[in-house]
Amino acid sequence: MGAADGANGFSKPLQVGCVGISHRTADVAVRERFAVGDPVLGETAAGVKELEGLCGAVVISTCNRVEYYFAASDAAQAVEQIRQRLGVGVEPGFYAHAGRESVAHLMRVVSGMDSMVPGETEILGQVKKAYQSAVEAGAANREVHVLFQKAFAVAKEVRSQTNITRGPVSVGGVAVDLAEKIFGKLAHCKVMILGAGETAEQTGRALVSRGVRSIFVSNRTHDRAVELANSMGGAALHFDEWQNWAHDVDIIVGSTAAPHAVVLREPMEKLMGQRPARPLFIIDLAVPRDVEASVNELEGVYVYDIDALQQIAERSLTFRRAELVQCEAIIERCAREVAEKLGEEKAESGWEKVESGKRKAETDERNRAERDSLPQVARKGAPEGAGNVETDEGNAETGERKLSVRE
């Protein structure tokens, strides 16, 4: 380590930086080679801190990224040492940032701006755990504390000052939002899930997370229905019995692998006669569809198929992407403040300028790619407030019929 001349043990201010790979630069086969398990995140960070010239480190490892953040007397030297430790040399896919650019990068990460789905919030919790692991392992120093604590504060500001997290971006999320608009609080709702695959399970768990307490699961393979029902605190039904219970449910989730419709108009018409003035929301996630098209014509029945749900999700995603410009302005301002606090704003090294230029080029290219990949959404309209996204046409109906919902 350098001369113990200052409070941090070095004769000049430390530089912060990072080395890593993410879903933007490497496929999963590469990322998994460098993944670090949660139990050893702190231990790994402590090992990195012991490299010559380093004084602090945090290691982040999620399914979409592996990143090593550091405070060191010389950022370029630290980057090379970390690369050597990982055995990657100049392997494609690995990037490095230093100074203000590394500060901005971390802020983008924790704000969800660098995620596959812009604005997702899970990454913030994952980074907080990684930071805490480093703290507990004694790997975090003053510069690391400043870097991460400010990044967490910025993530909060981005969420509160922009709409980056607004609107559901998954089919399950859209379905649950629509259910809440129909019924209000979901605690009193009863749900029937037809099928027991991954999509049905995700939607069921999303409903439970919003308060649903009563769930029935019906599947042609009864053992799988029992397994899924037990995992959600529900009850399993044999597949030839589900219609006997459907008159008392509020939401039906169709996600079977049947080659034909299993929710037919005639029995549903009889069922609706047993429940006057009580709406029925049907979420049809199956391909081929589980619900006969004419079921949607019945009074009080609202059917949303996978295409209608995906359309709302895509509109939300487009809306989030449009918020990135405002988010970036917050990031740039806050990154400058942190760099000044760390004493790194006075001058950029030649290496930092090169990395900053590369980052700008990457961002420009990414923005172009995202614009080119935006889906051409058919504007059938969306239910009022659906996905919390508004277009120039305003809020209208999505799905196959009008849906009056509560605000």
Rounded to the nearest angstrom, the radius of gyration is 26 Å
CATH topology value of the largest domain: Beta Polymerase, domain 2
Large-scale geometry: elongated
**Main β-sheet, spatial strand arrangement:** 7-6-5-8-9-10
The ordered string of helix (H) and strand (E) elements is EHHEEHEHHHHEHEHEHEHEEHHH
What is the number of domains? 2
Strand content: 5-15%
- What share of residues is helical? 40-55%
**How many β-strands, per DSSP?**
10
Describe the structure.
The chain has 2 domains: 15-166 and 323-347, Glutamyl-tRNA reductase, N-terminal domain (Beta Polymerase, domain 2), CATH 3.30.460.30; 171-311, NAD(P)-binding Rossmann-like Domain (Rossmann fold). It is built from 14 helices and 10 strands. The chain has helices at 28-31, 41-49, 75-86, 100-110, 122-136, 142-161, 171-183, 198-209, 222-231, 242-245, 265-273, 306-322, 324-341, 350-373; strands at 15-22, 54-61, 65-72, 95-98, 190-194, 214-219, 235-238, 251-254, 280-284, 301-305. Helix 11 links the parallel strand 8 (251-254) and strand 9 (280-284). Helix 4 crosses helix 13 and helix 7 (171-183) crosses helix 8.
